[in-house]
Amino acid sequence: MDPTTIGLISIGVLISLVLLGVHVGVALSAVSVVSLWIITGNSQVALSLLGSTLNYAIKDYVFAVIPLFILMGSLLTAADISDDLFRGLNVILRRVKGGLVYATIVGNAFFAAVTGSSIASAATFSKISLGPMYRLGYDKKIALGSVAGTSVLGMLIPPSTLFILYGILTDESIGKLFIAGIVPGILLTVMFAIGVYIWIRLRPGLVPDSDEGSYGPSRIKDIFILWPVILLIAIVLGGIYGGLFTPTEAGAVGAFGSLTIALTRRRLTPSKLWGALLDTGYTSGSIMILVICAQLYSRMLTLSGVINWLQGVLTNLSVAPMVIIGIFIGVALLMGTLIDGSSIMLLVIPIMYPIIKNLGFDPIWFAVVITVVIEMGLITPPFGMSVFTVKAVMGDVTTLEEIFSGSSPFLLMICVLVVLLLIFPGIVTWLPNMM
User: Fold this and answer.
1) Containing domain of residue 219, as a range?
2) Partners of 214 in the beta sheet?
3) Residue 367 has pLDDT above 80, yes or no
């Protein structure tokens, strides 16, 4: 059996193992080692490549960006900064019909800019948004949909974990990836707000006429608690854009800034600090293991000749290159209904990236497009990690069907964004090209 055939079979085996529930890291490493063993006919070669990958895969300085940005988000979460964001936004929007929904949308956008995690956003805003909404008589559909649907902003607005993984897997600039996500992230936030406005206009009974008193006494000073987080986001992203520091250095600045904010608010007890450090260690460790396994998988695909074979097949197809992008989007969307976003990125990017480069597409643009598509999987049945997160937090108060139903208008808006990015790639490339 020739190496390319073995490589193709290994992809099918890998996807099957992941769908059967095998941990992605275990599946990636096992399939890679066994495939290399069969291709070379020598177990020592496979084990030697495994050893060298373990040694060299994450020793580069750039990998420090992962724990630093995770620590930044963990510290702010431990200090209940998301609660402050929501309270401040509610003061501004309390007289607007459906104000708590708009506060949730904007709050998720801010929260995404300090955590980079959609799951964290879904869990956090389930706790702080849904209680006030239910007390005021918001319809369950719009309340649950606004929390689960807007949580996807965590994957797009920098610092995004998926952008970090994409940059590591492809050697693309993580700084440019972060900057590329800003305009699409803001655009999607605005689209969510416009979509909610139209939804409320069509069905006014979904929300009360006013949110006065929804979140305790309204105090003007609560507005000012937004500024430290806004300033921190501006320093981190502005520093990357302006070339003042690298993404890794930006992570360090962000972590230090979040620690300063948490200490200033006097909420960071020793136990909370220890919990934030443990959370950072656990999350970073699991991501690093996945990165090592993904790089081993990528090396196996290259040695087997699968990448070159796929490039030849797709290049020789008598279809427009955009059709191939459409195929990749379909694959990512299908996988997004079954497995989480990080796993999708680790599985498909080693295959897709060389092909889109060969076809002449901008890899930064493709990163944003594929990330937005992966976002859709967070609220698409049957998997929908954000939906399951909201259900886990709310328990028997709601059902999965209600959350999926409420999220469907937001899913439609994400589809519109994907179409816009395909038609107008400058939405993504304009800002990073100015760096």
Assistant:
1) 60-433
2) 216
3) yes
